[in-house]
Amino acid sequence: MSVMAMYCFSSALCLSFVVYGCRLLVKYDIAVADFMLISHHFSFQVFEILTDYRYPISRKHWRPISSHMISETALLICLTVTLIYLYIRQQWTALSKWGIPHEPPSFRKFGHAALLYGRNVIDYELRCKKKFGNVWGLYMMTSPFVVIHDPEIIRRVMVTDFSEFPNRFRNPRYFGAKDVENGVFLSRERQWKRMRSALSPTFSNAKLRSMSGIMNNCIGNTILRIKRLVEDRHIIVVDVKDLFNRLSLDVICSTAFSIDVNSQDESLPEPEMARRARMFFENNFVQRFRIFFKFSFPAIGRYIGEGSRQKHASYFTAVCRKFLAARTAGPSFKEKEDYPHASRFDIMEGMVKCRKTPEEIEQHQKGLSDSEISANAITMLLAGYDTTAVAMTYLAYNLAFHSDIQNKLQADIDEAFGGVNEIDFDTVNMKLKYLDMCIHESLRMYCPAANTIRCASREVTINGLRIPKGVDIRIPIAALCRDPDLWEDPLVYKPERMRNMQDIDPVIYQPFGTGPRNCIGFKFALLEIKLAFCTILRNYSFAPTDKTPTPPLILKQMTTTSPVENVELKIIPRR
């Protein structure tokens, strides 16, 4: 066995010992002293014992701890730490071997991970672009990423040479929940292509037109909540992120499953689906550590449990399976009292129409399996919940600080609808050009997603850049939208720059991605935003408070971007 093979084997063994040892301590409430006894008495069987919980562990057979046991255990720990240190240092040579410039990684920054999660990630990426040029690298602890800021190389990766970069991640478990791996967001190659073909008709203009009425009902509940608050205080101050989170959840539950959540009614307890969705996107220390460890040590990261995110995803899986079972039960479904809106079209119905058995899918490469329907329902629910809510938060914030733009937009909305109460699909998409401009400019300044990932399926050379097989390519879409070399006054809100969208390079401006693997639900999200703001701005105006952070808004990067500070705005009735 070669020295490198021995080195890798020892590193993997010691890392496995630490991981499974920690899990054992938690699972069986074993004291640290007892854990040291395990390492002493079972050193040659440690991997087998710690990977198979069927072996009974009885304290009565353990002998009292002695000083030499402590010394040996301390030596084992020191050896483990040393091997981990050497392993990480070895992994940190990858970018240098590939000729990719980068800042020196450090343990204090977990490679460069500490700079990517938290505030000012966009500023960091722009600084690296200025320092290194359009291509540089970074480490998520031990996992190397190649960051590409060059529009032409990005076009090759995401559009022209898409077949060489068909997947989002080298390891989809980075996302932290196995129940969503069969969804269109994380699926790979042939499975993704089949699912994308099956799901695309669900988001056609005809289907969106039929769902616009459902969206309007949910928006109406939001208006009722605002109206109740205004009647009490005339001018109200609200956390707009919370307001739009509730609206997004109502919309996605109604359009996906035809169920009324009405989370805007504060007299009722928080709906379980709202609580689960909110907690799914929470990135506490434990959740960040799990994701970080999976990036850092992919070989053993799969042995780390999925944690709370998987628990919440499993809840949504159970909900989706319940609805799937009801939908496939036959015509009696539409007569059940639990489903009063069963006759209308929703996303679940579109997927059920594509339902096939695994054998049929294998033979014809068409349709969706039951697990794929559940995974895609979860994907739609979670993706439609947070990203759309944060996009509406940014738009309300921009309008609040630019009253002239808000007034002009309100005048356009008043002219388009006049005395008509119903805000319809065709009007918001055909007659409100300025609304489109305001939305797109807000998405440019504050992208809900700071970056997107593509993985090289084989070694590729593009414009002299060699990209090894299996390397994750990071596209800094938020930094591209704020690059002063690409946009004039990038931190100034100017809707007029989005007047002619055909002149905007879809590689430079891609809040929903670009190429074949762009966001399948982007038309859905834009429709929800348009309907919501048409309804709200016909009746109310946004204004900043003394506590509202001044522009530009500082963002932090977690699963999506979000404001570092709460965005509280006044909602003022129009006269």
Textual characterization of the structure:
- It is built from 23 helices and 12 strands.
- With 575 residues, the chain is an alpha+beta fold.
- The chain folds into 2 domains: 89 residues, no CATH class; 396 residues, Cytochrome p450 (Orthogonal Bundle), CATH 1.10.630.
- The strands form 4 sheets. The chain has a 4-stranded mixed beta sheet with strand order 2-3-8-5. A 3-stranded antiparallel beta sheet has the order 1-10-11.
- Strand 6 and strand 7 form a beta hairpin.
Task: Describe this protein with a few key phrases.
2 domains; 12 strands; Cytochrome p450; 23 helices; alpha+beta; 4-stranded mixed beta sheet; 575 residues; 53% helix
The residue fraction in helices comes out at 40-55%
Radius of gyration: 26 Å
Q: Give the number of domains.
A: 2
CATH topology of the largest domain: Cytochrome p450
Uncertain regions spanning at least 5 consecutive residues: 1-11, 24-62
Q: Which percent band covers the strand fraction?
A: 5-15%
Distance between the termini: 82 Å
Which class of secondary structure composition applies to the elements? alpha+beta
Number of strands: 12
